[in-house]
């Protein structure tokens, strides 16, 4: 009898020890996730959800589920857009849904936003694996990345003629269709608070999509709970963006007084005939010649000098064109060398299989930017400022930010554009703080907030990951960033 009592006591002790160890393990996982280490188990596949990603090569162990795959936006032509969706790191059911778009046009939101900037998995050097991003925006929201339009990244069409008609309107309408069909896959998000965010040429995409949603919301059956949008270093008004680009180049000693004087006297950026003026064109060529020596997206950082990894990215970064219908544009975003790491990773057979874009044998050729889309883009609104005015009047939350070392869509371009709105100032220019340091400066207008990021280039979250995450959290909360240390 005594023996059985001793045995029972030992079993109880062992149970208590196992319970304590389990509790300790859970606590460690929660604390680790909170501090960015992400040491949690992979989620189990949801019954019947074929898009859940479970075997992504080199993926860190995390506490949230993520999904990738296709949504057909046009059955007749076979147009399909690729998405990658990450649930929030914690309390996903309580947090909003945010759609992130990159621009180009023709560049991948997976390759830039998800892989280099704000996604939870950053591609390691040379594309051989992934590392956990402790400043991923899915700490604050459920994040949806979309490769748009067709021809970008893994997105495709079975109808060749679709690739000849790409432009702003088609992109906005296909993305709108995508959202409704995506909600059919994830119905619990249909009534969730929804925001759109993006950078660069998404400065056109995002307001245009927001306008479509706002207009279509007049039909209750199509309602999307759009609360607002957030834009970083955005193309906004071609004439003012271009004016800001040359003024910034001059004010930051990239070009001479003489070159700037010629541009100011000979270039009328509001005119369709701007680029028929040879004096203007030669002077602008001189600006681009000087920018070719450095990284236009980040004036004070090094360029990629790895000839095996950097040559393609460098040639693409400085490719630009003149057109009577749109601002002379430069493709891509901040590199140096990261673009090519992403290309290596997303063209691995096992990666494509894990993301449900191929069977691992018949591979798709993924690139971070599509040159043909970039050069063939014909439908581009010269300005989205009228959309700003419309959506400000509708009460949407609109925040705009600028990394102040970007020469591509510099802070001057954005300031010129916002000045053109003529909005009353509600809180004057002042510094804003993160971790007791000045992160930038801020001004609040009636219906719009504008902020700078001190020392950040074109893709702000790459340069300032912690402060950009804090800024994003303030945006979602509708609260001004801290104005004191």
Explain this structure.
The structure is a single chain. The protein is an alpha/beta fold and 485 residues long. 37% of the residues lie in helices and 18% in strands. It contains 15 helices and 15 strands. Strands 1, 2, 3, 6, 7, 8, 9, 12, 13, 14 and 15 form an eleven-stranded mixed beta sheet that branches. Strands 4-5 form a two-stranded antiparallel sheet. A two-stranded antiparallel ribbon has the order 10-11. The longest helix has 33 residues, at 2-34. It is globular, with a radius of gyration of 24 Å. Residues 1-39, 41-48, 308-319 and 323-327 have low confidence and may be disordered.
Tell me the helix content: 25-40%
Number of helical regions: 15
* Model regions low in confidence, pLDDT < 50 over at least 5 residues: 1-39, 41-48, 308-319, 323-327
Instruction: Classify the beta-strand content into a percent band.
Output: 15-25%
Distance between the termini: 69 Å
**Total DSSP E strands:** 15
Structural class assignment: alpha/beta
Mean pLDDT: 86
- The Cα radius of gyration reads 24 Å
What is the H-and-E element order?
HEEEHEEEEHEHEHHHHEEHHHHEHEEEHH
The largest sheet is: 11 strands, mixed
Q: What best-fitting shape do the alpha-carbon axes yield?
A: globular
């Amino acid at each position: 009898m005594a023996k059985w009592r001793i045995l029972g006591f030992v079993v109880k002790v062992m149970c208590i020890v196992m319970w304590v160890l389990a509790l300790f393990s859970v606590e460690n996982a929660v604390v680790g996730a909170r501090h960015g280490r992400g040491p949690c188990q992979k989620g189990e596949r949801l019954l019947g959800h074929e898009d859940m990603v479970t075997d992504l090569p080199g993926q860190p162990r995390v506490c949230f589920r993520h999904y990738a795959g296709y949504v057909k936006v046009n059955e007749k032509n076979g147009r399909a857009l690729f998405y990658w969706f990450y649930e929030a790191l914690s309390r996903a059911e309580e947090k909003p849904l945010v759609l992130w778009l990159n621009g180009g046009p023709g560049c991948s939101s997976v390759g830039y936003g998800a892989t280099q900037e704000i996604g939870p998995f950053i591609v390691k050097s040379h594309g051989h694996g992934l590392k956990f991003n402790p400043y991923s925006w899915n700490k604050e929201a459920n994040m949806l990345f979309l490769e748009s339009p067709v021809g970008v990244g893994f997105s495709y069409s079975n109808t060749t003629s679709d690739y000849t008609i790409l432009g702003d309107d088609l992109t906005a309408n296909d993305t709108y269709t995508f959202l409704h069909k995506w909600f059919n896959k994830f119905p619990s998000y249909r009534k969730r608070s929804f925001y759109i965010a993006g950078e660069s040429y998404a400065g056109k995409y995002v307001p245009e999509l927001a306008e479509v949603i706002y207009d279509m919301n007049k039909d209750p059956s199509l309602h999307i709970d759009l609360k607002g949008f957030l834009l970083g270093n955005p193309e906004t008004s071609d004439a003012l963006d271009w004016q800001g680009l040359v003024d910034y180049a001059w004010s930051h000693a990239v070009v001479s007084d003489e070159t700037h004087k010629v541009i100011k006297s000979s270039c009328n950026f509001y005119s369709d005939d701007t680029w028929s003026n040879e004096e203007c064109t030669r002077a602008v060529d001189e600006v681009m010649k000087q920018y070719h020596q450095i990284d236009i997206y980040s004036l004070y950082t090094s360029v990629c000098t790895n000839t095996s990894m950097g040559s393609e990215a460098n040639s693409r970064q400085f490719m630009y064109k003149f057109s009577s219908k749109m601002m002379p544009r430069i493709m891509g975003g901040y590199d140096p060398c990261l673009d090519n790491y992403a290309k290596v990773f997303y063209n691995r057979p096992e990666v494509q299989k894990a993301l449900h874009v191929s069977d691992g044998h018949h591979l798709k050729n993924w690139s971070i930017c599509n040159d043909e889309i970039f050069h063939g883009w014909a439908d581009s609104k010269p300005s989205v400022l009228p959309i700003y005015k419309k959506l400000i009047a509708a009460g949407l939350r609109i925040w705009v930010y600028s990394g102040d070392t970007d020469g591509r869509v510099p802070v001057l371009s954005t300031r010129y554009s916002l000045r053109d709105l003529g909005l009353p100032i509600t809180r004057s220019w002042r510094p804003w703080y993160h971790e007791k340091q000045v992160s930038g400066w801020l001004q609040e207008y009636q219906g719009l907030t504008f902020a700078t990021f001190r020392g950040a280039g074109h893709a702000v979250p790459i340069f300032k990951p912690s402060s950009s995450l804090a800024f994003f959290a303030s945006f979602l909360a509708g609260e001004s960033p801290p104005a004191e240390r």
